[in-house]
Amino acid sequence: MDRLLELLANGKFLEATLQTVFYAVFSMGVGGALGLIVGVALTVTRQGGIMQNRPVFWVLNFLVNFFRPIPFVILLGALTPLARLVVGTGIGERALLFVLTFAAMFGIARLVEQNLLTVPPGVIEAARAMGAGPVRTIFTVLIPEGLGPLVLGYTFAFIAVVDMTAMAGVVGGGGLGNLALQYGYRQFNPWVTWSAVLVIIVIVQLVQLLGNVIARKLLRR
């Protein structure tokens, strides 16, 4: 208990909380945008899509299937050379954010594809019949019609990214997961460990609640 109070007093607990939130928000912002692009491309280039293109679909589908199943802790090590090339370092917060964004992009791409495939084909066909081009159909019909399920998908992805941040310490990052391991688990202090767990649960519950509220409003339109 004393160790927990010390971490609260010196600001380390608050710092770790803010780091976790920042990691998740940043990677979801960048990875979410890239994942949306890849997911939409998967949807429209598949067989029967409005921009059917088998070679493009095959390449994108292969990349998503290749990277998405890799456990995050392994991905952290495997992408170290690429992180050095892109962000200039293989350790620290920049490397962590790069890998988090990378993992989020491919995970979200599949979620986007699955959710957009729930849009009724008749709605898309009606837009095409009225003369809407592929790009206009994507932005005025496909994405708006799938917005409710997309919000739920992004909510799920955000929670998954929060889980990934627990591995931040592997590359020298911070966050609640690293604090729980460093000051809780390794020092046999359950007060610190469970306090970090409770804060993560609160973050997840708030994000899930917000996502549910937004999705409910969109689905009632």
List keywords for this structure.
79% helix, 11 helices, mainly alpha, 221 residues, single chain
Polypeptide structure, described:
This protein has 221 residues and is an all-alpha fold. The protein is built from eleven helices and no strands. α2 crosses α6. The mean pLDDT is 88.
Content of β-strand: under 5%
**Helix share, percent:** over 70%
How big is the Rg?
20 Å
Average pLDDT for all residues: 88
Number of H- or I-type helical stretches: 11
Encode the helix/strand succession as letters: HHHHHHHHHHH
Question: Topology, please?
Answer:
Blueprint: H1 2-9, H2 12-45, H3 54-67, H4 72-78, H5 80-87, H6 92-116, H7 121-129, H8 134-145, H9 147-164, H10 176-185, H11 190-219
What's this entry about, in short?
This protein has 221 residues and is mainly alpha-helical.
